[in-house]
Amino acid sequence: MADDVLRLEKVRKSYNVGRPNETEILHGIDLTLGRGEFAALIGPSGSGKSTLLNIMGLLDRPTSGNLFIEGHETGSLDDRALTRLRGRSIGFVFQHHLLITAFTALENVMMPLLVERGFPDAAMKKRALDLLTALGLEQWQNHPANALSGGQQQRVAVARALAMEPALVLADEPTGNLDTKSAEGVFEMMREVNRKSGTSFLIVTHSLEIARGCDRTIELVDGQIVPAGAVPAAA
Amino acid sequence: MNRWMPFEWIAALRFLREGRMQTLFIISGVSVGIAVIVFMSALLTGLQANLTKRVLSAQAHITLQPRDEIARPLRLGGDDLELAIVQMPLQRVRSIDQWQALMRVLQDDPAIVAVSPVAAGSALAVRGDATRAVSIAGIEPDSYFRIVRLPDNIVAGTVRLSSQDIVIGTELARYLGIGVGDRLTLSAGARTSGALTVTAIFDLGNRQVNERYVYVPLRTAQSLLDLIGGVTSIELTIADVYAAETVARRLQPMTGAAAYSWIATNAQFFSAVQAQSLSSTVIRLFVALSVALGIASVLVVSVIQRSKDIGILRAMGTSRGQTLRIFLIQGALIGLVGAVVGSALGAGGLLVFHDHVRQADGSELIPLVLERSLFVAAALLATLTGVLAAMAPALRASRLDPVVAIRG
Fold first, then answer.
1. Cβ B1–A107 below 8 Å, yes or no?
2. How deeply is B221 buried, as exposed, middle or buried, from its count of CB atoms within 10 A (0-12, 13-18, 19+)?
3. Could you say which of A3, B32, B164, B398 would form a disulfide bridge with B320 (CB–CB 3.0 to 4.6 Å)?
């Protein structure tokens, strides 16, 4: 249990609670993600993947049930404590909005550290530069974020997600907007980070190719986890 | 990134820099608003100072005089009056009781800068066949010139007031056809002065004063007005001219004399000045309001444009407080930079106005008053306005749900 990065117990999520149009999206999710796991979360549109990802990323609260991040129960935490825990333990990679365009690639990677520590310092810069170098992006470090290609931006976003050395990276369709070659590159890069650093990854994807490249596939259908089984063959 | 700069400042500056056209336009708007405020304030300060100086050039801030004599109705006993109609008595020229002792008390008052006794009354100035009704002011030059700067307004001769000297105004000199060194006689009722020599001619910028007032030594006036050893008024200059009415009210019961402030004496002028200040304040308030609305509208748009950035920052651990501060800092910076540019524009406008808008004789129309406090106040006002204007958009940004913000 102590090695669990993420644990959900009977997590339910409803919208419009107490109103006639109350709708339950997640119906008692039980899920555990171990340290170093590289997992895919798949499911049809409207199955509740994004809602589940938001709850796991502490961006949203469940209506009921328990959520543990690195063993910390999160239900009793206030907004400030949740924000702090999110910043330290969880890295995000988003599909659509990748980087903050007001900053350079290097500054984007430094951003989580800057938010945490308040003032920029040399160690912060070195950490960001090391990450960019490891991901083959050192020559783009001073480029404005919007001057990079989609693939480069997504790789910078992965570097940013890793800046705080989080226990868990949640990636929402990280290759959804990329061409095949870039998508493969980004996926391989995440895989490599996982192998080297032991950071857990949970990747929401519609791509069966991506899912097959993961150690584990979690399938969500109609707000419920489908018991573990074979991933359907690619069409 | 500067090492000394906190995250919120870095983010605020970058957001302003990225939306540089938007930033440029709003700073220009704020600058114009501040320039108007600085220009109007300085102009009004100069104008009022000039008007007040002119009004006070020939009069004291406060004048103490004997109280009016009143008739005492005869009583039959109890509340019954013997006469129902009481005629107001004639007001004689009277001296202030114990005026020397009163002078010492007044000289020790911290609000009072200068004190001078005056023996004043009416007389006729006679020069040959020409006569003119005048007001005599018998003064002690040393103390009186600290109240009315007569030596600064002399157009001919030198102020010298020995027992047979007199100083007159330009209009009276013209009417009587006399100049420095000429002689005239003053006649007050049955008493007549000897021949007095005109030692100087003044111009106090007021035709009435220049025509009606003559200055003689205190003893000469006392003798002429049958007021031996007495004075009809004590004139005062105080540190804060606009506190004259308050000080006068305080002195009245303390001295037992009637105290008249220049504000009460020039009530119409003072109410005009106040109306001018009020209208100017209203205009400045509306300018400040439009500046605030401009800043707020730009930042509201910025929050909408940057909602995804805000969502990302929140996901990375940025607290609501940090998000709030990022937008408050933007408001403050817009206000401050606008204030600096606007102050420079306002000061430049004042210099141009001062140089090009002159009186017919080429002298300045309105004195140029550029006080450091005005610019400091403008900077503080604009920065505070910027912060207040940014409050609503900043709160909106800090309350954004990161899930909704990222989804856009």
1. yes
2. buried
3. B398
